[in-house]
Amino acid sequence: MIVRGKIMLILSMLLLVVFTLVVIQIILSLLAPGVAETIGLYPFRFWWMWWIIDIVVYGLSITVLILIGLGIGRFIEKRIPIDLDHLKASMISTSLAVISGAIFVFMFVTYLLDYQLATTLFIIAILFALIPSLISWLVAPAIINVMYRCRYDPQLQKIVDRVATRAGMKPPKAVVAEMPIPNAFAYSSPLMGRYVAITTGLFKTVSRDGLEAVIGHELGHHKHRDNAVIMLFGLIPSTIYFVGRFLLYIGFVDRYSDGGERRRSGGGMLFMIVGVVLIVVSILLQVAVLSLSRLREHYADAHGAKVTSPFAMIGALKSLDQFYRSTGARKLIADSKIKPLFIYSLAESLVGFEEMLSTHPPIYKRIAFLESLIGKEIEA
């Protein structure tokens, strides 16, 4: 079953990529004829260069991530929001940093290259980044419901309704996922509505108050619109990455398009240098987006503490941590392709690498932050 699931996942991703390419080629053929061939979207022409660029990009990405981990890994490990105001300020500053980085990159590319070329590249890159994300977002509830065998549960719905009333929000649909390990996740789409899923394992792991705290955490994600926020911010580094990749391709073709003979034009080298710079920047911005995701997990924890108590939220996290450390179920998360759906985090120290690349902060940080909320009014 595991092998079959992986095969289905790989086939689904391949189909999604093919569909994305087809849609983009159709749009380009209507709006900008000739542009697609210039950046290598049409088949059988310079496709082999994409493989070379892939190797270069992957090597560059790994190198940049190692350098980032060595440079700021220890700093990330020590960063814990000291209170709710500090958390909100961190979310705002991180968001502004990502947006400012995107604006700077666009101005930088426009300054170095032709404005029309830069605009065209960014539009195409946005399509590359947006279409798969949009499709995934729209159909995610259906995929998750099938993968986890989620079913509606009237008793769980009553608990979710009660917690949602305390939160002052409309309750999402409550479903039980047939999984033996404890987990909970919130997911939604404009087509299929909002859901909160609780696994059968979670009912056996946490107390009644802990269950309500975890539900409050998931309701916080819906209330704060975290799925949409992180998806939108995730488009920024993805778009910049694709622009960099296109420029690498254009530069490579410009210098080696005559049967392998090198051209003397300096334009190709400029495109390649700018492409490398943009890929590096996209990795830096992706690290910032992951940081924003971890901060919003803290914010969801605060919401769970608000609708129950900090003690209930802390108790639930401790129960989850004890379970995963004592049963070896952490390996299941480590091998999972959908780790962002797990409320538990594997983010522990290896020069800060795991935490830097995680969507969730480690448990000890979440508990430390929740302890700072004890006895205070929580606005989340």
TrEMBL record:
All copies of the Peptidase M48 domain together span: 153-372
Q: How is the cofactor bound?
A: Binds 1 zinc ion per subunit.
Q: Which cofactor does it need?
A: Zn(2+)
Gene Ontology molecular functions: metalloendopeptidase activity; zinc ion binding
> What is this entry's stated membrane topology?
Multi-pass membrane protein
Location comes to:
Cell membrane
Q: Which residues are listed as membrane-spanning?
A: 7-28, 48-70, 91-113, 119-148, 228-250, 270-292
Keywords recorded for this protein, A-Z: Cell membrane, Hydrolase, Membrane, Metal-binding, Metalloprotease, Protease, Transmembrane, Transmembrane helix, Zinc
Task: Provide the active-site residues from the annotation.
Answer: 218
- Top EC class of this enzyme: hydrolase
Q: Where does Zn(2+) bind?
A: 217, 221, 297
The GO cellular component terms are:
plasma membrane
* GO BP: proteolysis
Q: Which Pfam families match?
A: Peptidase_M48
Q: Principal localization? A: membrane
Instruction: Please state the Enzyme Commission number of this protein.
Output: 3.4.24.-
Q: Which family does it belong to?
A: Belongs to the peptidase M48B family.
Q: Know the name of this protein?
A: Protease HtpX homolog
Q: Which organism is it from?
A: Ignisphaera aggregans
